[in-house]
UniProtKB/TrEMBL annotation:
Record protein name field: LysR family transcriptional regulator
Protein origin, superkingdom: Bacteria
InterPro entries assigned to the protein according to its UniProt record, in alphabetical order: LysR_HTH_N (IPR000847), LysR_subst-bd (IPR005119), WH-like_DNA-bd_sf (IPR036388), WH_DNA-bd_sf (IPR036390)
Cytoplasm as UniProt keyword: no
Domain named HTH lysR-type: residues: 15-72
CDD domains: PBP2_CysL_like
One Pfam family of this chain: HTH_1
Keywords: DNA-binding, Transcription, Transcription regulation
Similarity-based family: Belongs to the LysR transcriptional regulatory family.
Keyword presence, DNA-binding: yes
Amino acid sequence: MSGESARQPLSYRVPDLGAMELLLAVARLGSLGRAARELGITQPAASSRIRAMERQLGVGLVTRSPSGSRLTDAGALVTDWARRVVEAAEEFDVGAQALRDRRDSRLRIAASMTIAEYLLPGWLIALHGQRPGTAVSLLAGNSAAVVRRLRDAEAELGFVEGVDVPGGLDAVTVAKDRLVVVTAPGHPWSKRRRPVPARELAATPLILREEGSGTRQVLDAALAGHGGLAAPLLELSSTTAVKAAVISGAGPAVLSELAVADELAARRMVEVPVEGVRLTRELRAVWPTGQRPTGPSRDLLSLTRGRPGVAVHDRT
C-alpha cells in the first residue's frame, strides 16, 4: 500500500487554527484577557474556547489565577506544536495570496468583433478604475474563434454574438443588439416607401461577414424560413470592411446597430426597414462550463451586467 493511500484523516481531537492562535497569545501575553483583546474577542468567549480545547485534547492547558494565566506543562508542549502548525498555516496563506495576486495581475479576453469594438472599451476603462494593476490582453475575432480560444485555454472570458450558447460553455447575456439593413444613400432600397419583405432580403445578394461570425449566424437563422440566404455579393472578414463596401455603393448589408450608429447619423448610410423577420440577438459573456469567473474576470462581468439598460439572463 502506498504512503498516499495509507494516510488517515486528521483526528477530531486536533484543534482549529483559531484555538491554537488563542493559546499562543495566552503564552506570549501571560493573560487570557489581554489575549482576548488582541484577537478581538470577549474574555468569556476566550475562556470558553480554551476550555473546549482542553476537553478536545483531554488535558489541561492553562492555569488561571488572579495574577494572570500560566501554561501547564502539557500546555507548554501543545503550544510548541501549535506554533509550528500556525506558522505553516501562515506560509500557506502567503503562498495562496501570491497565487491570487498572480492570477489577478492579468486578464485574457476573447471577443467577437462588434463587442470588441463598440462595447468592451467602455467596460475595460471602468475595470481599470477598479483594478489599475491588471494587465488586459484582448483577442478579437469572430464568435467561432472566441469559442476555440476558450476551449484551448487561451482566454479566461469570452464575448460572443451567436444564436445559441456554444456547447461546453456557460453564459450570461450582457446586452441586446439589433441588426439593421443598410445601404449607401444612392441605392434603390434607400428610396423605397415600403419595407423590404423578408423573402426579398433573403433572395438578394448581400455584403456579408464570413461564416462563423455571430452576425452571419443570426442572419442565417432569421432567414432560414424565407428561402435562406442568397449567395453573397461579397464575403468579408471584418465589420469595417463591410461598412466600407456599403458606403462605396457595392450593395446592401445587415450589420449591428451598434456598428453603424455613426454612419447613420452622418447619413453616409441609410437604414432600410424590413418586414416579416426579427433581426435581434443577445450578446453573451461565455466561459468554460463549471469554471465560474473569478478575480478580474468576475469584476469585468459585474461591470457589463451593471451598465444602464443592459438586459441580463443567467443560463447557469
